[in-house]
Amino acid sequence: MRLMNTQMAAYVAKGNGRLSGMCSISMSLDAKTTINEIQWCQAQGMPGIMIYGPQVMENADGSITYDYYYKNETLPVWQEVARLGMFVYLHAKELPHGPEGLYEDSIEADTGKTVKAYDPGQAYAGVCDDFDTGTAYGFAVRTAQVVGNMIFHGLFDKVPDLQIVLGHMGETVASWLWRIDKKANVGGCLDGLQHNFTHYFRNNFFVTTSGVFDTKALAHLVDVLDTERVLFSVDSDPEILSDGTDWLRGIDPGTNPSLTCDVLQKIAYQNAEKLFWP
């Protein structure tokens, strides 16, 4: 961690105030080590940390835990991030999968032939050749699961000032708020929480446009989220920088009433200025 973060700090310093950056953190149940690194990064002028999805933890009994961000052992880390006024970028990560892809192999009942699950490098007679379930939708699904765990386990009641940044137009969460509130209320998932799911999403999350250059999706996002919590981003290098900038510049406020010039200016750079140069 320190090697990567030292390099990032050096890059930022070369920008003479024009550049900002996030440090990379590997979350563990050893909160002291993680907190020390976060404090070091904050002292270097980095306003946020990046965590690469739900990191895998191998337990003493050999079992694997994919998501432990809401557990008591990590609470001191979140409390320190909030105390320092920093934010956390929750980077997407692929779904857990079987040996051959997102799902296990299956066997055709009539022929006994083994049919491989979708997985890069496998061929399916021209159908979904080399289809990457991760970037297409798996990343979003997995990250949304982590967000749900953080909210439903009461993390933001314990650390109300904690701020999380999500990419890719909110990893599908922004489009599901109405249904999540309705079903969670019926299922008792909100028992013991101070607010509904949407409240936490609106008050504890920022969302970037990274890799989703969709005007209708952006219009929906600013309808459900405060316009000061939406950030322009490209998701380079999987996406082409000019595709993102051309898209944003080409949005017509005349045909998109919620995307006024003032709102687009906030999304383009003003919101990022407040987050990265507080």
Q: What can you see in these coordinates?
A:
It is a single chain. α2 (31-43) packs parallel to α3. The radius of gyration is 20 Å and the shape is globular. The strands form three sheets. Strands 1-2-5-8-9-10 form a six-stranded parallel sheet. 30% of the residues are buried. The chain has helices spanning 2-14, 31-43, 75-83, 133-152, 155-158, 177-187, 197-204, 215-224, 241-250, 261-276, and strands spanning 22-24, 48-52, 57-58, 64-65, 87-91, 106-107, 114-115, 164-166, 205-208, 230-231. With 278 residues, it is α/β, with parallel strands linked by helices. It contains ten helices and ten strands. The longest helix is centred in the middle third of the chain and has 20 residues, at 133-152. The protein has one domain (2-94, 133-276): TIM Barrel (Alpha-Beta Barrel), CATH 3.20.20. β6 (106-107) and β7 (114-115) form a beta hairpin.
